């Protein structure tokens, strides 16, 4: 036998039968005799024959692959979501292809085009922080490819969505800070395009308004990206104000940790002189000093549910299912970076 990948033609040549007979034997076709089936299967196993799934998928016009588009995977948040997705998909007939947009709309567009060309069966996506237009997702849907949006909403896009109640989480965090006696509470927000940024900002504003705490526009600073450098610059802008904040509610833990770094370098005591609360509950948030108060999100469950919803569409392709919008409730986790209530 030749070296390299064994094909149906190799088995046919060895057994002196037609390749079509080998193919039907491997697929238990009723027209093929039992002796022929047994001989073909025995030789296929001996030669470690592996079917060419790519060719099969082209014939069936499907790839048995699900695309997962995320902005990044270096942090715990999206890697935990992907783990949840994989733990569901592994028990199905599908594989997953992980694609990184790197928070870029242009890269996201390119990814969607490439996934369409390889006949992807479905897409799970958390849009980039630059994405304002969702027509590329609509084009997938028009092609019969189901799309499930998770974590970051796509306003106006009719699709299945698995989100977290960011408003509720932010409201709880800020109201807690007010309850500890903080009066000058600042907010370090995320990139302006994101639905999560908008919802967390609104929760912050409504908590202040409900508790009759004056809203100071100088206390609201948006971090344009998620880098330590961006967060440090935004934090300095707040802490160098003449009337310095006595608490900061940050868009996420990454920004909150950068905030604590700046506060420490300026000689401020946390939480005695400034309290800090983040959002996400990254694993390392409980190990820094002082440990970070934050808002926990069920990210693993978000990934699992997103995958299950997509699989339900793939298993019922001839049935029109209503779009689902599932919203998880986050939980406030109080640690040492904020005062006791």
UniProtKB/TrEMBL annotation:
InterPro entries noted in UniProt: HTH_LacI (IPR000843), LacI/GalR-like_sensor (IPR046335), Lambda_DNA-bd_dom_sf (IPR010982), Peripla_BP_I (IPR028082)
KW Transferase (keyword) present: no
Domain HTH lacI-type: start-end pairs: 6-60
A Pfam short name: LacI
Keyword vocabulary terms for this entry: DNA-binding, Transcription, Transcription regulation
A single MF term (Gene Ontology): transcription cis-regulatory region binding
Listed name of the protein: Transcriptional regulator, LacI family
Organism this protein belongs to: Arenibacter palladensis
